[in-house]
């Protein structure tokens, strides 16, 4: 199996996800091991000197002015983890827990957190053994790090709490000590600073945003594919995708979207029907699709740039900087997840917009006034309802997306007696972004299902790209010969989109 080295500097989102899915294993780089040893030595030297430093020999948050005796420093870290492991709500999916662990390990591997290499090696051994701590989703404010979720993770490293172990194709629950023992691993005894290093970071936020972003990059392509299929389904105009239009407004995402749609429509025989057409312009949901999809592409590019920096950053506090002349341990605020929170809120809004314009295209296909097809693509009008409710479902999803698009970042709640007085709520926002991306996939799947049915009723051949997509859809959803339940097929198509099957078609 492929090995991926964690060094705190060069981890890609795709590498992290491949580790989380069990298709690669993670190891600690030799350079990181040395940096971690050096920073650990600095922490131990500080303890010996008797100097007071937050998080090492003090209390936490509002109790940071309380000094802790040297003989209680290990208990301090254990108490920190145990007291903070109080999350609630549904459990995180195991894949997302492991992704969170990958990001936490990579952050510590940067070598400025003062933790021992043994700590990262235990995390990686659990990852490679497919052991996922059970982590309640709710508890992080996205400001002091993902404290509660990461505490549940850290608890398992100590041999406490519950875990899920991947065995014979399914996740099986057990206690953490048994899971470690079965994998030949020993629980770790946390030393000074290490509990804080484990829980003080943006790893849960990063995990959810990574999953969201990877979904959205596939869905941005799917949205353009849906447009092309729907244009052919209603015999719409290809002219709005002329490159000259988009070169005159050279926004990157817009030009990419238009070029993709245009390529999918190339060699279309349906286009011939426009020669004597009296329809001057199509509705905005077709004509302006590059102008709506394009900003989403731009958003995703910027989100990827930011997120790749974030997952290769040290996000705990304080940080240990070892120099040739002197060593400094400095308190700061890298645990604050505002960048992740704002990006997550933006993605949730983007999902609403892509779904909203997609639903309008479904409406056009369903309406004979625009499509010239039978109402709702029913074979026997009145007797059958055809795909009528497929549009209803898309509309219902948009209502869900509307609620999810309400920004999480505007919900600040001061905590810790006012010392931690601004929260990003990035954990909430990033989870909402993931939920939104999954819902968007279903709306786009519904549109493709409708356009494919309409294409079956047009004699002329569509564009080459659309033709390939149509063939692919028909491997998942069969033609509508009569009314039938559609849930399984709709969901199967949605899942196939999220799995990246469209990108496989087009390389």
Keywords:
507 residues; mainly alpha; Fumarase C, Chain A, domain 2; 2 domains; 20 helices
Structure write-up:
The chain contains 20 helices and nine strands. By secondary structure, the protein is mainly alpha-helical. The chain has two domains: 200 residues, Fumarase/aspartase (N-terminal domain) (Fumarase C, Chain B, domain 1, Orthogonal Bundle); 298 residues, Fumarase/aspartase (Central domain) (Fumarase C, Chain A, domain 2, Up-down Bundle). The strands form four sheets. A three-stranded antiparallel β-sheet has the order 4-6-7. A two-stranded parallel ribbon has the order 1-2. The two termini are 24 Å apart. The mean pLDDT is 94.
Which helices and strands appear, and what pairs or packs with what?
Layout: E1 2-6, H1 13-20, E2 24-28, H2 30-49, H3 73-84, E3 88-91, H4 94-108, H5 117-128, E4 131-133, E5 136-138, H6 147-157, E6 162-167, E7 170-175, H7 176-182, H8 194-199, H9 203-233, H10 243-247, H11 252-265, H12 284-287, H13 289-310, E8 319-322, E9 327-330, H14 338-366, H15 368-371, H16 388-404, H17 426-455, H18 464-473, H19 487-498, H20 501-506
Parallel strand pairs: 1-2
Antiparallel strand pairs: 3-5, 4-6, 6-7, 8-9
Pattern of helices and strands: EHEHHEHHEEHEEHHHHHHHEEHHHHHHH
Structural class: mainly alpha
Cα-atom radius of gyration: 26 Å
Please give the domain count.
2
End-to-end gap: 24 Å
Molecular shape: elongated
CATH superfamily of the largest domain: Fumarase/aspartase (Central domain)
Provide the CATH architecture of the largest domain: Up-down Bundle
> What profile does the largest beta sheet have?
3 strands, antiparallel
The amount of helix comes to 40-55%
Question: How many beta-strand runs?
Answer: 9
In CATH, the topology of the largest domain is named Fumarase C, Chain A, domain 2
Overall pLDDT level? 94
CATH class designation of the largest domain = Mainly Alpha
Tell me the strand order in the biggest sheet.
4-6-7
Count of helical segments? 20
Percent of sequence in beta strands? 5-15%
Segments where pLDDT lies below 50 for 5+ residues?
none
């Amino acid at each position: 199996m492929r090995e991926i080295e964690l060094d705190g500097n060069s981890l890609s989102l795709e590498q992290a996800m491949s580790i989380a899915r069990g298709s690669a294993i993670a190891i600690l780089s030799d350079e990181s091991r040395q940096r971690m040893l050096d920073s650990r030595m600095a922490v131990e030297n500080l303890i010996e000197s008797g100097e007071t430093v937050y998080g090492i020999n003090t209390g936490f948050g509002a109790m940071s002015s309380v000094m802790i005796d040297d003989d209680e420093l290990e208990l301090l870290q254990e108490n920190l983890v145990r007291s903070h492991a109080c999350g609630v709500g549904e459990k995180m999916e195991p894949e997302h827990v492991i992704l969170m662990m990958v990001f936490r390990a990579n952050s510590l591997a940067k070598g400025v957190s003062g933790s021992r290499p043994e700590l990262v090696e235990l995390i990686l051994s659990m990852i490679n053994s497919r052991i996922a701590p059970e982590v309640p989703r709710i508890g992080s404010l996205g400001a002091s790090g993902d404290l509660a979720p990461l505490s549940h993770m850290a608890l398992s490293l100590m041999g406490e709490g519950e875990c899920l172990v991947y065995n014979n194709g399914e996740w099986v629950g057990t206690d953490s000590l048994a899971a470690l023992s079965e994998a030949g691993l020993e629980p770790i005894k946390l030393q000074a600073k290490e509990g804080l290093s484990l829980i003080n970071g943006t790893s849960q936020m990063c995990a959810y945003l990574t999953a969201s972003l990877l979904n959205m990059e596939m869905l941005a392509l799917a949205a353009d594919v849906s447009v092309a299929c729907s244009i052919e389904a209603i015999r719409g105009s290809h002219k709005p995708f002329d490159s000259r239009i988009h070169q005159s407004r050279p926004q990157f995402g817009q030009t990419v979207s238009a070029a993709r749609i245009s390529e999918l429509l190339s060699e279309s025989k349906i286009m011939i029907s426009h020669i004597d057409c009296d329809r001057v312009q199509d509705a905005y949901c077709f004509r302006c699709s590059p102008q709506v999809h394009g900003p989403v592409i731009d958003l995703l590019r910027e989100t990827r740039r930011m997120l790749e920096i974030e997952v290769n950053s040290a996000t705990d506090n304080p940080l240990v900087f070892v120099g040739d002349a002197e060593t400094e341990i400095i308190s700061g605020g890298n645990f604050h997840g505002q960048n992740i929170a704002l990006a997550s809120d933006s993605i949730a809004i983007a999902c609403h917009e892509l779904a909203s314009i997609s639903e309008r295209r479904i409406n056009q296909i369903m309406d004979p006034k625009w499509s010239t097809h039978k109402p709702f693509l029913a074979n026997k009008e009145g007797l059958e309802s055809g795909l009528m409710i497929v549009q209803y479902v898309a509309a219902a999803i948009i209502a869900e997306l509307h609620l999810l698009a309400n920004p999480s970042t505007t919900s600040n709640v001061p905590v810790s007696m006012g010392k931690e007085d601004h929260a990003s709520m990035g954990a909430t926002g990033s989870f909402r972004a993931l939920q939104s991306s999954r819902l968007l996939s279903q709306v786009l799947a519904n549109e493709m299902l409708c356009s494919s049915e309409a294409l079956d009723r047009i004699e002329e051949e569509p564009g080459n790209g659309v033709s390939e997509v149509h063939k692919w859809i028909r491997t998942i959803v069969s033609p509508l010969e009569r009314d039938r339940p559609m849930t399984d097929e709709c969901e199967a198509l949605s899942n196939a989109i999220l799995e990246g099957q469209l990108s496989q078609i087009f390389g």
